[in-house]
């Protein structure tokens, strides 16, 4: 049980770190004068897929607007959608951190019980 819970905690932490990094990349790439929207779309798809796998539906839905802005090659729409995605990711990360804290408490209690 502890091994499974630890794996779950690692998945959440990896998701948060990866998506945070990708969102930072998106923010820096959109500032380049000749924006490569295909690169932004690929990164956005990565966030959407990772979010879907972990069940972060609000982040995944926010990514849909990012992808549409990439298709339209609209920098302002992309920036607006990126802000929404950042907000949804921050909310999701906060909720996931609560779950991680709870899982760690459970793991500590189980370890004490087995001693």
TrEMBL record:
UniProt-listed SUPFAM superfamilies: Histidine-containing phosphotransfer domain, HPT domain (SSF47226)
Example GO BP: phosphorelay signal transduction system
Keyword Magnesium: no
A molecular function GO annotation: protein histidine kinase binding
Compartments, as annotated in UniProt: Cytoplasm, Cytosol; Nucleus
GO-annotated cellular components: cytosol; nucleus
Signal sequence residues: none
Function description: Functions as a two-component phosphorelay mediators between cytokinin sensor histidine kinases and response regulators (B-type ARRs). Plays an important role in propagating cytokinin signal transduction.
Protein name listed in UniProt: Histidine-containing phosphotransfer protein
């Amino acid at each position: 049980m502890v091994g499974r819970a630890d794996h779950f905690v690692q998945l959440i932490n990896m998701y948060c770190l990866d998506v945070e990094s990708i969102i930072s990349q998106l923010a820096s790439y959109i500032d380049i004068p000749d924006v490569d929207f295909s690169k932004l779309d690929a990164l956005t798809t990565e966030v959407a897929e990772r979010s879907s796998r972990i069940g972060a539906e609000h982040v995944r839905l926010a990514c849909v607007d990012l992808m549409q802005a990439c298709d339209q090659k609209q920098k302002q729409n992309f920036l607006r959608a990126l802000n929404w995605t950042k907000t949804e990711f921050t909310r999701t990360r906060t909720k996931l951190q609560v779950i991680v804290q709870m899982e760690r408490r459970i793991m500590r209690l189980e370890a004490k019980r087995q001693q």
